[in-house]
Specification:
Elements: E1 3-8, E2 14-32, E3 56-59, H1 62-73, E4 78-94, H2 98-104, H3 108-112, H4 117-128, E5 133-137, H5 143-146, E6 149-154, E7 160-163, E8 169-173, E9 183-186, E10 192-199
Length: 202
């Protein structure tokens, strides 16, 4: 069962994070080809769920990882490297279920909109408490209306047009917070070099 554990928010307000295990699942990550050596290196740059500490952003589905790239590059063909990893973690903060969102005192709109203040605050709370990661909604809502499909052109093999996902789940990993029995196995499948681009509606 998930464990609701208290967290201290700025200003002294008490929140709870619903902490659950994440076991035996494959996750996907992509980076631009020019940054391929950094595929599995956590970034200290500020992003939606992290600021001032290292975090590794992954997705539970390959097409969601690609959608996160196309959200930034749009219709411009972009060469990326895709990798997969297997992870087993005992403590991940759940921010995808109604229970998890309510415990954290946020709504889906609060943590997927253009502002990052609330999501970064939750990421910092989880990191400071030693939680190993966050299960979070992918902030790709509306992307499928702009790009209903995207082109997937592998370096080897045939290109194909795929439907853009309308939503998805990301796993943000804090590798420094892994417990001794937690596992993160990189490159459980061969890396792939792929060129992707969004195909506009109409």
């Amino acid at each position: 069962m998930p464990l609701a554990r208290p967290a201290e928010a700025p200003g002294g307000r008490r929140l709870s994070l619903t902490v659950v295990p994440f076991l035996g699942d494959v996750v996907y990550r992509q980076v631009r080809y020019a940054r391929r050596r950094l595929l599995w290196i956590p970034s200290i740059d500020p992003y939606r769920w992290s600021v001032g500490f290292p975090a590794l952003y992954t997705s539970l589905f390959e097409d969601v990882a690609i959608a996160e790239r196309i959200k930034r590059t749009g219709a411009d063909p972009t060469r990326i490297v895709l990798g997969t990893a297997r992870t087993e973690i005992q403590s991940v903060a759940d921010l995808i279920t109604p229970t998890g969102l309510a415990a954290a005192g946020v709504t889906l709109a609060d943590i997927t909109g253009p502002g990052h203040v609330r999501s970064q605050r939750l990421g910092r709370e989880a990191y400071d408490r030693g939680v190993a990661g966050l299960l979070v909604p992918a902030a790709i809502f509306g992307l499928a209306e702009i790009f209903p499909t995207f082109r997937y052109a592998p370096a080897r093999g045939r290109s194909a047009d795929r439907s853009m996902p309308r939503d998805g789940v990301n796993l943000v990993l804090f590798l420094e917070r892994f417990a001794p029995n937690d596992a993160f196995v990189r490159d459980v499948r061969p890396r792939r070099t792929v060129t992707v681009c969004g195909i506009p509606a109409g």
